[in-house]
Specification:
The complex is a heterodimer of chains A (169) and B (154). Chain A is mainly α and 169 residues long. Chain A has six helices and no strands. In chain A, helix 1 runs antiparallel to helix 2 and helix 2 crosses helix 5. By secondary structure, chain B is α+β, with helices and mostly antiparallel strands. Chain B is 38% helix and 32% strand. In chain B, the strands form two sheets. Chain B has a five-stranded antiparallel beta sheet. The model of chain B has no long low-confidence stretch (mean pLDDT 90). The chains are: A mainly alpha (169), B alpha+beta (154). Chains A and B meet through helix 1, helix 2, helix 3 and helix 4 of A and helix 1, strand 4, strand 5, helix 3 and strand 7 of B.
Amino acid sequence: MTDLLSHVLAVYAVLTVVSWWRDGLEERHVAVAVVGVVLPDFSKVFLLVSESTISSLLGLPFSWHPLHRLGGVVVLAAAFSLLFERSRRLQVAGYALLGGLAHFPLDALLIRADGHSPPYFYPLSWWQPPAGDLFLSSDLWPVIPIGLLAAAVWLVDRRHGDPRGVGSP
Amino acid sequence: MSTRALVAAALFLSLLAMCVHYGDVAQERDPYPTSEALQSDYADHVGAPFYAWGTVVSAGPEGIVVSARGVTLTVPEPVPGADPGDSIQVAGTLAADHRLVAERIVLSDETNLLALYVVSALGALLAVAFFRRHWTVDRSGWCLVPRDRDGAHR
């Protein structure tokens, strides 16, 4: 996995820039997407409760991996939306799903010795996208350019709000 | 039972179904020998392609020993920077006597993994703080609502 800070900052930066051009995309929606990008890493629960423990409890095979796949993200985004008032649930689920799906392109850039990323599209498909082979999951350098980008976006957003309006009468 | 509880139960069951299905099917779809298969009859898989995440058991100028997929494999080539305890990805072909003819080896420094967890925890805290800036709990309905309902945010 890419470090979570890079994921959070990347989604913040991209959606904040999009919000400059897209009416209706407010900072609170970006905040929901930022939580959404964290959802796939709920699969790291295996560090606390092993798959074999659950498997022996259920008497069935078990894997935490679906939480880090399309199907798991859809379910987690929908579950997250249930925490909100009814009128906002659909919108929240959409932004949480958007954030969750934004997790995968960054993870797909990881170096994999066999050249294949995991089957992110499960349960729709077992296809494994080619690995980007750009950095290791233990590398921390990606957070530097992504952090600088997020800081620049934050500064522009604070100073000008909507850069489209800068200089306009 | 409220609609919200019903939907939550349906979502939980669908997630559980995926976790069980994945656990059941993933091994069958795995193109590489499973840990059970390797432990029960290693010789049967000599010549098979292999890929796994593992842990460096020992490292020296003559090669490294890796624990992966329930077996211990010797990679007869030096891996610069490898230390016992490091996480490692190995891809190659299984050879006799628990050896691996490696085509690609990717090493992850164990100290970097600790830093990864620390930085990731920072990311989670940042996400929660940013979220709490915009959303709060409405105690009358026990649900999350915008902190500023008048829409003063951009």
